[in-house]
Amino acid sequence: MDKIKELNDLLAEIQSTGDKFSPELKKVARFVLENHHVVGFSSIRHLASLAKVNHSTMVRFAKLIGFSTFSEFREVFRPQYRLVESNSFMSTTSEMNQQEGKDFALSSVSNWKSVSDLAVLDSPDMHETIRIAARDILQAETCYVLGVGVANSVAKNFTYLADMIAPGFTSLPSGGDLPIDVLGRGTKKDILIAMTFKPYRREVIEAVKFADSLGIPIIAISNSPACPIMASARTRFVIPTSSPHFFPSMVPITALFELLLGYLISEIGNEVIVDLRKMHTRRHTFGIYVEEADELEY
């Protein structure tokens, strides 16, 4: 394998080949993907200790990826990274425990990071990836949108809005069906948007594996590049979901889907604008909306 010089290319290579590694090498791959901001600044022994592997395993991993030495491998991580705090379910829970006797709600407001996490969406590369995803979605016969837990409402909201501009959107889970029940009717002409965040949900991982076995293209969304659903995905979105709470913030994820909606409309063109205007005119005609304050009864 040729040596990879660009960090994004290196991370993508690790993502796509991670399933082929041995168990020990998988530990290194997972650690590197989740902590790539510290790889360029720590000794190999320290990194091995953090990854819970032998230092020789780190060297073996670097060579497997295409580098002569671990130092060459580490050099790729240095140009654009600085040390940052990690965010995880367990560290946040620990922080909450330390707040005993204090006003944690007030602390939560002052430490809220969701708005700063939106910055990752404001880049030309990200917008181009979203545009490509929008085109793939519009070419599909059915777009399944899978989200459970806190992500379920995001999936349903996107499906509701997307269905206004184009047919063929289905949120999962749906009714009493399991995701795999619905995906079992899918084909290579469909597409699956799947999201799960640390700690990952088993049913999402299994649904993605099943969809991949059917040849259904996958758009994966997570807060970690090491998320298991990334390996087989055609398009990957790694979006930070920092939160002082015990759950990931859905603010950046909702923003991602709003951008995706914008690109869907852009790709379809004026036709969808006309249809939306007709829909709103129809709703006004049928008195769906309350337009005057004096119509409200208290």
Overview of the molecule:
With 298 residues, the chain is α/β, with parallel strands linked by helices. It has two domains: 7-75, Arc Repressor Mutant, subunit A (Orthogonal Bundle), CATH 1.10.10.10; 117-283, 3-Layer(aba) Sandwich (Rossmann fold). Helices cover 52% and strands 7% of the residues. The protein contains 15 helices and five strands. The chain has a five-stranded parallel β-sheet, with helices on both faces. β1 (143-146), α11 and β2 (169-172) form a beta-alpha-beta unit. α4 packs across α5 (55-65) and α11 packs parallel to α14 (251-268). The radius of gyration is 22 Å and the shape is elongated. The termini are far apart. Mean pLDDT is 83; it is low at 81-114.
Describe, in short, the structure shown.
This protein has 298 residues and is of the alpha/beta class.
Entry keywords:
single chain; 298 residues; alpha/beta; Rossmann fold; 2 domains; 52% helix
Topology:
Layout: H1 7-17, H2 23-34, H3 36-39, H4 44-51, H5 55-65, H6 70-75, H7 89-98, H8 104-110, H9 114-117, H10 124-139, E1 143-146, H11 152-165, E2 169-172, H12 179-183, E3 191-195, H13 202-213, E4 218-222, E5 235-238, H14 251-268, H15 270-285
Helix pairs in contact: 2-5, 4-5, 10-14, 11-14
